[in-house]
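Students often ask why inverse folding is considered easier than folding. One informal answer: many sequences map to the same fold, so there is more than one right answer. In these notes we will look at a single instance of the problem. The structure comes first.
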């Protein structure tokens, strides 16, 4: 994501103003985020059920807002790592939708032969469900 790279560059340079601008750009590109670092970030869940990434993001917003760029750089590193780990643990379909599991086929054999008396004189029936 280009806005993450811009934020990373700003944090590495130690430029608080550029970091805040890069954060605002990132927030515009994420669903469910406030665009003001002064607003409570506790309601922001831009990474859905990835609680580790959401926590990292909230710390990032807080640290940039307070001017603690060293901590913000650590937060961004953790955020990137948690996003990669979350993505690697679950394959997703288009637009982040979970990929449905493949269809399951179960084969069972009936102990009843085809003439119903279980004496083996008829043919066995296999049923696929």
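Output (designed amino acids):
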């Amino acid at each position: 994501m280009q806005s993450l790279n811009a934020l990373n560059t700003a944090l590495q340079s130690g430029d608080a103003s550029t970091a805040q601008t890069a954060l605002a750009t990132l927030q515009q590109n994420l669903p469910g985020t406030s665009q003001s670092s002064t607003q409570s970030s506790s309601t922001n869940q831009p990474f859905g059920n990835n609680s580790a990434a959401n926590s990292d993001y909230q710390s990032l917003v807080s640290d940039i807002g307070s001017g603690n760029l060293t901590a913000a750089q650590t937060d961004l590193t953790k955020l990137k790592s948690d996003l990669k780990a979350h993505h690697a643990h679950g394959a997703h379909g288009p637009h982040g939708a979970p990929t449905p599991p493949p269809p399951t086929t179960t084969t069972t054999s009936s102990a009843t032969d085809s003439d119903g008396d279980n004496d083996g004189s008829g043919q066995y029936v296999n049923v696929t469900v």
